[in-house]
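User: Structure tokens for this complex, please. No commentary.
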Amino acid sequence: MRLDFVNMEAERIPHMRGGEKEVALKSYSDGKNKIMLGRLIPGATIGLHTHETNSETVYILSGTGKMLCDGVYEDLAPGVCTYCPKGHQHSLMNDNPEGSEDLVFFAVVPEQ
Amino acid sequence: MRLDFVNMEAERIPHMRGGEKEVALKSYSDGKNKIMLGRLIPGATIGLHTHETNSETVYILSGTGKMLCDGVYEDLAPGVCTYCPKGHQHSLMNDNPEGSEDLVFFAVVPEQ
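Assistant:
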């Protein structure tokens, strides 16, 4: 099944998972996998949350930022991937000053 | 968990799943998720295979090609994603002439 994220409409989600500012999110879900293309402007975050029934794999397409994963800050840059296994917790952040590049990522959340 | 695909060593897999030529593959697996960064030169393919116990989500980073998914050819280009649910089959191909761009993709294969 082909999903064209280039031409898909983005939804604006304010304070996603209790985070700062908003996330522009393109997503598809069939109940088994949630597949996402997300964009965080500088200062935007996805709040800390635990993956109770699924895992999440995030691949950084452009920009920089940090993932707080089980209490550890991981530096993110294009070509870096961050994996949150089922039962673990994380928070994604574009911790750059205003005027910096957006953090753009691709993510897959499979029910497991 | 941070996975740095930029600096990870690629493994060369000839005739992957019975396909043509070879795939340069960077991969991580914990038994629950296989996470991959793959590169197909022009003429290289990953042969047709069925996802019996898992699904696969493939995101195209650069280059063009086709996914044959359940008998349907899907055009692939940067920013396009192709999803193969559990129980379905697919084959990935860089069907461009020699000298064309490599097809580079990011993929997640979760056990489900």
